């Protein structure tokens, strides 16, 4: 019984802390209230940006979506160098791949971690792309020239972006895909995730968020024990969704994870 007051005090402190959470919001128009979302929310050194949409030809859609993202970042004195994670939903992934240079022009050579998936439809029937990003805000966020977050060449993910970006104590990974039978796809994807984590002296126990995109969610459910074997009993938060295609037509799974690094975690070799 003597432990009860201490427990109540801890719970009260947690409640007060949650009430004191400061959200700095940025809006672009009254339509946000009508739909029920906020364009961007800053919490601490992280900026979460709602999906920005585009319509028309894919190059035009990219210009519309990334123009909205650029305006949002500029409100925080940031630019595309500060984007650490990008997720693109598109109704035509081949058109997106064909227009990849239009997207790359916004980032230059400083690409974020990235996941691209094809879906049947977006919010409006004429939307062909929706781009969601997360950006890291340096301590000197009032300045107009902020240093970008640390990108690791632990292994390049190719044209989309690097495999991982560390921002503070958070590690953002690009989506990792697998092909073949679902158990094989799972083993392939998680093996690559483990390799990337190992470059930061981490393992799957440090993963706090997982999103799995699959073309066959029933097959993923049937192979859940294969996935669980990689985590052991230390599961992250997770979201699984079925989509109609991934970047390559033979991919059946893409796993997107976020990990947390201990305060004393060393940098990987060659990081910048």
Record field, number of beta strands: 13
Radius of gyration of CA atoms, rounded to a whole number:
20 Å
List the domain count as a whole number. 2
CATH superfamily of the largest domain: RutC-like
Please write the CATH class name of the largest domain.
Alpha Beta
Content of β-strand: 25-35%
Question: Strand count, sense and closure of the main sheet?
Answer: 7 strands, mixed
Q: Tell me the CATH topology of the largest domain.
A: 60s Ribosomal Protein L30, Chain: A
Distance, first to last CA? 52 Å
The total of helices stands at: 8
How does CATH name the architecture of the largest domain? 2-Layer Sandwich
Determine the fraction of residues in helical runs and give it as a percent range. Answer: 25-40%
| Overall spatial form | globular
Helix-strand makeup class:
alpha+beta
Compute the average pLDDT.
Answer: 87
* Low-pLDDT ranges: 1-5, 11-18, 142-147, 153-157
**SSE succession:** HEHEEHEHHEEEEEEHEHHEE
